[in-house]
Amino acid sequence: MEKLIYMDNAATTPVRAEVLDNIIPYFTTKYGNASSVYKLGQSSKKAVEAAREQVANALGADVSEIYFTAGGSESDNWALRGVTEALKEKGNHIITTKIEHHAILHTSQYLEQIGFEVTYLPVDKYGKVSINELEAAIRPTTILISVMTANNEIGTVEPIAEIGEIAHKHGIIFHTDAVQAVGHVPIDVNKMNIDLLSLSGHKLGAPKGIGAIYIRKGTKINQLIFGGAQERKRRAGTENVPAIVGLGKAIELANEEMEDEVKRLVLLRDKLINGIMKAIPYSRLNGHPTDRLPGNCNISFAFVEGESVLMLLDMNGICASSGSACTSGSLDPSHVLLALGLKHEEAHGSVRFTLGYETTDEDVDYVLEKLPPIIERLRSMSPLYEDYINGKDNA
Ligand SMILES: *Cc1c(COP(=O)(O)O)cnc(C)c1O
Fold it and tell me: Is 356 touching ligand 1 by the criterion CB < 6 Å?
């Protein structure tokens, strides 16, 4: 097989072998509907409840507070739409940030269309939300605060426990999109004052199309998906038993291994970051230098297009992603990088490498070998770079 260096684990991860082993019987022999009364159905139900316990344990939650969904996007939609609808008599204001995932941002825009008011908090140059600015944004009509635990593009980890404390001081419900954090950052919903938390399977070694939401007991939230009586009548739809089993196993594994795996990834990540910064002039690290996800390396290279870098990396078997989002055929610079204060061309020149449990030291060496000549080659074709260098020589 051709060489493949996968450094896009924030986009998705491979299903772990142990997880796949656990899942397969639920496709082949244990395929019963978890709502059926006969033994075949009841064995599916048992598997779903065992997975619910695995998820609850990983978050410090009670099993009755975990609901399975079809992924991070659904959990985010449910949290925002469900709470605002349930509390619309109490107030019409919510607070979120400029750097959220589109599942939060586009839901917030929809809420604005139907009459809610939304404050999008700015972040500092490292991507951190300011507690003071959060507190200043709170109004008597604020019913919900939603701030992500860790950012998917730049890896910055937010001060979630403090944000939750402020929310609770003002009697406001606190939701966090923890899709990138679960399995990489220790989570305890009680210690961190979290009322609602979104997570997704395919970001931590489980299949795509499965996720969960934690809903603190007593939190007012309407239902998003109507239909059957599954998930204690709060989320309809026949349970995706294999994927649920996979999510339970993946989250349990990730939590068991977290301490060692975080140490390993931080070493690899910092080797990659420092290696790139040393070898490639006019490069800058995006995100927080230390409060960042263990596998995240996001770097802007002046005078190049991230998309061109990705193509040349791909020709060398390296998968990464860029600071541009392809929407409606045109390339928009990432809203996250713009929120840090980067100029459009800086955002366009950004590349994100996200390491995972399969990433090895050799993979990092390989990227450190291939990347510098790629940037140099692209810069050699850039008139901007030529002008800059000539200008410098004349100065
Ligand atoms: C991937 C991601 C989502 C969406 O999760 P899906 O399971 O793909 O729907 C939401 N938020 C963040 C931060 C993500 O990284």
Answer: no
User: Is 319 annotated in the active site?
Assistant: no
Task: Evaluate: CB of 16 within 6 angstroms of ligand 1.
Answer: no
- Compute the distance from residue 142 Cα to the ligand 1 centre, in Å: 25
DSSP E strand stretches across the chain: 5-6, 66-69, 93-97, 117-121, 142-146, 173-177, 196-200, 211-215, 283-285, 296-301, 318-319, 321-322, 324-327, 330-333, 350-354
Q: Is the CB of 242 under 6 A from ligand 1?
A: no
Task: Give the number of other CB atoms < 10 A from CB of residue 57.
Answer: 15
The CATH class of 5-11+258-394 is alpha beta
Neighbours of 111 (CB within 10 A): 20
Parts of the chain belonging to CATH 3.90.1150.10: 5-11+258-394
CA of 111 to the centre of ligand 1 (A): 19
- Ligand 1 atom closest to 203 (CA): 1
List the chain pLDDT tens, one digit each, 395 residues: 578 999 999 999 999 999 999 999 999 999 999 999 999 999 999 999 999 999 999 999 999 999 999 999 999 999 999 999 999 999 999 999 999 999 999 999 999 999 999 999 999 999 999 999 999 999 999 999 999 999 999 999 999 999 999 999 999 999 999 999 999 999 999 999 999 999 999 999 999 999 999 999 999 999 999 999 999 999 999 999 999 999 999 999 999 999 999 999 999 999 999 999 999 999 999 999 999 999 999 999 999 999 999 999 999 999 999 977 665 556 789 999 999 999 998 999 999 999 999 999 999 999 999 999 999 999 999 888 888 888 876 65
For the chain, where do the domains classified as CATH 3.40.640.10 start and end?
17-254
Q: Which CATH class is domain 17-254?
A: alpha beta
3-class secondary-structure state, position 21: helix
